[in-house]
Amino acid sequence: MKNLTFTNEDEMPILGLGTWKSAPHEVYTAVKEAIRIGYRHIDCAAVYGNEEGVGKAIDEAIASGIVSREELWITSKLWNNAHGEENVMPALEKTLSDLGLDYLDLYLVHWPIANQPDKPSARSAADFRSLKEVPLTDTWKGMEKAKEQGLARHIGVSNFNAKQLTELIEGGTVMPEMNQVELHPYLQQAQLVRFCENRGIHLTAYSPLGSPDRPAGLKAEDEPILLEDAAIMAIAEKKKASPAQILISWSIHREIAVIPKSVNPKRLKENFAAANLKLTEEEMEQIEALNRDRRYVDGKFWEVEGGPYTTAELWGEL
Ligand code: A2P
What we know:
alpha/beta, eight-stranded parallel β-sheet, 11 helices, binds adenosine-2'-5'-diphosphate
């Protein structure tokens, strides 16, 4: 398995297991099975509401001797209602307690969006706090403290645009080490990828399969189905692989970490095997031609009447 190497030589397996949308009762079995198959990188978040299940699976895998803590790479994310320097440590401690761990390998600011502390889900303008009230650099100070204290070995962000990354780079002491964003052939984000690569910020691709199981409210009518793309299917057929394997392998070839979600043993195995699939330059070029700047997770849920956030600003389109 290929790794991404951090500046202190720590290595993160390039292929991990996604856990967004995995129900609490499913995630336990999925993580146990994944570790048995060979996955060593699990991507979690407080807001997924299933970290206790992940933790139980990790604990049992370690207890039974399949894997050691040091061999695992565990990522989690700070939710929007815990922005602000003083709120980071309590949120991280809760995540560590749910996961049954004494450190995370990577802790990310989940979104450049701040909620009121008592509003984990924000629905109206009053539930949000603007980034003028809680600057990203304040939250970042809390993240730096988490790293300093060894509770998170690495720190980074998710869903940040180049401007927001620059704010942290210029205003912070520790460089963000990761930006986890939606990336797949329909949303290749060439500019953001180049920006991160030029600054030594690693990338992780979320929703690499087009997130077909996301809630209906997040779906558009007649949206293109990535797993059924004709070019992807043709390459898959030629290589006797599945479309999902082609999508996963494409990200690995771009040196971008990838975290397909599955709770199905057969698909967990299939996705893991994609780490060994080789794509030719020609195939990579064919896939590159599929970009259509299509977001499946479009962030519209942060846009409320009179609220402080717009998707144009969020995605740096202004
Ligand atoms: P399941 O969990 O039942 O396997 P994403 O990672 O882009 O969010 O996509 C996750 C979705 O893709 C889930 O619905 C998951 O279903 C499905 N999925 C995962 N692996 C595969 C695969 N190899 N082939 C088809 N669908 C898959």
